[in-house]
Design goal:
alpha/beta, Dna Topoisomerase Vi A Subunit, Chain: A, domain 2, 2 domains, two-stranded antiparallel ribbon
């Protein structure tokens, strides 16, 4: 870190820059913001980080993040309890919850199969998912892994394990986003858009 920063400030910027999506300039802005807030506000921020690290753990059922043994989603009896949406990480779970359109349960794999990165099925919670399907009354599993090579490999692997259980398996649809231009879409996206085409309904 450049000597133009006082050492405590330089260390703060350096640590903030380690966060995902935070570059040096953003880290500098955040560090200066922290220095400008009151000591009490800085203390609350620091304590909230410590509390999250100390209290947040994985749900014993779906592996969502929670401060309890069982997360609120798994505890919610109003959810549709015969459908499970399988996602790679909690980020995708949060994104789906934000839409408000899905009311079933989840299962977080904690990653995707990626031999190049040394991640095989045993590193994920696939075995726990299959165990859930054998003990819970599940009628449908939605494979919502990401639409990339790792996500497709993971979805295919899981589907092969589920098929003998006679449970409906679905895959999230994906393709050209609303408001997107075909000109700027990649080949994989365009191919999936064509494969996932639907009957055009014209009510006019």
């Amino acid at each position: 870190m450049s000597s133009r920063y006082a050492r405590p400030l330089a260390i703060l910027i350096e640590e903030l820059a380690k966060l995902p999506g935070i570059g040096p300039k953003t880290a500098q802005r955040l560090a200066l913001y922290i220095l400008n807030i009151s000591r009490e506000e800085a203390g609350i921020l620091a304590q909230s980080i410590t509390n999250a690290k100390d209290k947040i753990k994985r749900c014993q059922i779906c592996y969502n993040l929670t401060d309890q043994n069982i997360c609120e989603i798994c505890q919610d009896q109003a959810r549709q309890r015969d459908i499970i949406c399988v996602v790679e990480t909690v980020r995708e779970l949060m994104a789906l919850e934000k839409t408000g359109g899905y009311k079933g349960l989840y299962h977080v794999l904690q990653g995707a199969i990626s031999p190049l990165d040394g991640i095989d099925p045993d590193h994920l919670t696939i075995e726990q998912l299959i165990s859930r399907l054998k003990t819970e009354d599940i009628k449908e599993v939605i494979l919502a892994t990401n639409p990339n090579i790792e996500g497709e490999v993971t979805a295919s692997y899981i589907a092969k394990l589920i098929r003998p259980l006679n449970i409906k398996i679905t895959r999230i649809a994906y393709g050209v986003p609303i408001g997107g231009d075909l000109e700027f879409a990649d080949e994989v996206t365009l191919t999936q858009s064509l494969l996932g085409r639907q009957i055009f309904k014209n009510d006019k």
